[in-house]
Amino acid sequence: MLVTLTRWHEDDLAGKLEEAAKAEDGDEWVILSLPAIRENGYCEYDRRNIGEPLWEDKYDLESLGKIKATVGGYEWNALYQQRPAPQEGAMFRREWWQRWSVMPGDLFDYLQSWDCTFKDKSTSDFVVGQVWARSKKNPANRYLLDQVRARMSFTETLQAIRDLSAKWPKATRKLIEDKANGTAVIDTLKTSIPGIVPVEPMGGKVVRAHAVTAVVEAGNVYIPAATIAPWVHDFVEELAAFPSATHDDQVDSMSQANAWYNDKGSFNIRNLV
């Protein structure tokens, strides 16, 4: 069986086959990826030197550079380099994130931000809960302090919120999207856990993410160093691949928290319980 295609999305046919091949009893595939310009990494089927074009007589580096300038980095990396997620990131570039190794001592305005899905299947999205706070010295700076991320059942989701609330008692405000699974979580916990804020985000996922891109680009968002939180690697990669990433649960939690900090009027807020 031979599959020939140009990559468009992280979760396109090639992406699904690659993911399936990682399974213990998955099918074996030989992957021949021929980017327009050879990048780093060894490939026994591509003997070009790094930086060499694929078909120099027709598309030399100057021609390819003009194409990249025309289509933009997002489409260039997917269609020409066979890498749907740009190396520097699409909406959220990797170098924009600031890192903290020692938690600042002047933090305030703590909150939790939850994205809830609880089908409890290997193919479902993840439940994500994040803890954020701002700096008193520079209130524009926000710090991601902690995160839980797993595929959970409804009961496990409730317990995860209880556990994170016990771990971070200062994070008394809990933002939970008041749609689909989140509504059931809100209705169940609102009489036992104080500070639950049902939020109804305005616009779709991409619109909400765009609303907080500027603060990330400006260097106002701090995430933990990988030595402190190994999960931060997956966080950065998901944000870099968005909106073409297979999952976007961490994006949703992040954008919800930072939209709250940006402008509390950007959400339709029901009464604080």
Radius of gyration, CA atoms, in whole angstroms: 21 Å
Q: Which architecture name of the largest domain does CATH use? A: 2-Layer Sandwich
List unreliable stretches of 5+ residues. Answer: 265-273
Structural domain count: 2
Please work out how many helical segments DSSP would assign. Answer: 8
> What structural class do helix, strand and pairing data support?
alpha/beta
Average residue-wise pLDDT: 86
The helix fraction, in percent, is 25-40%
Can you offer a commentary on this structure?
The chain is 32% helix and 18% strand. The protein has 273 residues and is of the alpha/beta class. It has an eight-stranded mixed β-sheet, with helices on both faces. The radius of gyration is 21 Å and the shape is globular. The termini are far apart. The model is unreliable at 265-273 (pLDDT under 50).
